[in-house]
Design goal:
heterodimer; A: mainly alpha; 4 helices; B: mainly alpha; two-stranded antiparallel ribbon; 5 helices; globular
């Protein structure tokens, strides 16, 4: 299978999955979307194993790492500012407090996960991007 | 950093796609490498030099 075919298949599966999840949420069904996601992930793994072309090389890994670091910095800054704004206006809308809390915990979890993975990879002598 | 990859590759009648396939990278990486816009890892540089049948220090040259 060519990389282009795999990317097309991945896009189609993503669109179908998104439509299915959206309709499931409307019907308040939360079980089958999880099953559908698991099936989609497994199917994509199967397709990926059949791709003969190089999917990502060292340059992609290096760019990905730099992009991930910059994304985390920008997202963290944005989320902290948004969080403070939402907390400041929580009296106007009680839902803002919940949203701010979720954003705060999600940002903390993201930064903790990043730090943990970075520490693990730094200790590995065989790590090579 | 300058390199002679394009010169040696064309001398061997090899396309960028073929070279990319041999060394295990995408064609875009070879394009950026030939243009001097990407600094390869030592392992990657070694693989390219080996494929083009030349020593690494003859393939790549640093400019001060």
């Amino acid at each position: 299978m060519k990389l282009k075919q795999y990317n097309t298949a991945r896009l189609v599966i993503a669109m179908l999955l998104a439509a299915f999840i959206a309709s499931s949420v409307v019907r308040r069904d939360f079980f089958w979307p999880v099953v559908a996601m698991a099936v989609a992930i497994l199917f994509l793994f199967l397709l990926r194993s059949r791709v003969k072309d190089v999917m990502a090389d060292e340059r992609d890994m290096a760019l990905g790492g730099a992009a991930a670091m910059l994304t985390i910095k920008i997202f963290s800054l944005f989320s902290v500012v948004s969080m403070f704004i939402m907390f400041a206006y929580q009296d106007l809308n009680p839902g803002l407090k919940l949203a701010a809390s979720v954003l705060a915990y999600a940002t903390c979890a993201l930064m903790l996960l990043y730090t943990l993975i970075f520490s693990v990879l730094r200790r590995r002598s065989s790590f090579h991007a | 950093m300058r390199n002679r990859i394009r010169e040696l590759r064309t001398g061997k009648s090899m396309t960028q796609e073929q070279l990319a396939k041999i060394v295990g990278v995408r064609r875009e990486t070879i394009v950026f490498l030939e243009q001097g816009k990407y600094n390869p890892s030592l392992l990657f540089a070694h693989r390219v030099a080996q494929t083009l049948d030349i020593a690494i220090d003859e393939l790549f040259s640093f400019e001060e």
